[in-house]
Amino acid sequence: MRNWFYVLLIPVGTLFAVTAFAYGTMAFQAVNAVGADALLHARHPLFQWLRRHGEAALLAELAVLGACTVLAIALDPPTDREAGQADRGGRSPTPPPSPLEPTQTP
Length: 106
Fold this sequence. Notes:
There is one protein chain. It is built from 4 helices and no strands. It is an all-alpha fold. Helix content is 69%, strand content 0%. The chain has a domain at 5-76.
């Protein structure tokens, strides 16, 4: 594989998805928890960390994910068709004849 940014997109995207779901779960439980459940969830170390650093973590992960996406696209090698056009000096290949057009027989 020539472009390693595609490989980086998998773990970075997975980390972003896990953080986003955890942050959403924390926010949902904070709004809907009642009584003892509220204290139980509020004391969980993951939710405490997300309360303090969740927004910054999501923004940083989103920035890294965006940068990896842009770099993966920008550094992607040209496709075979584009490479073939570059070899012919930018001219597009001659299209095949249409089956509806009459063919000329010598």
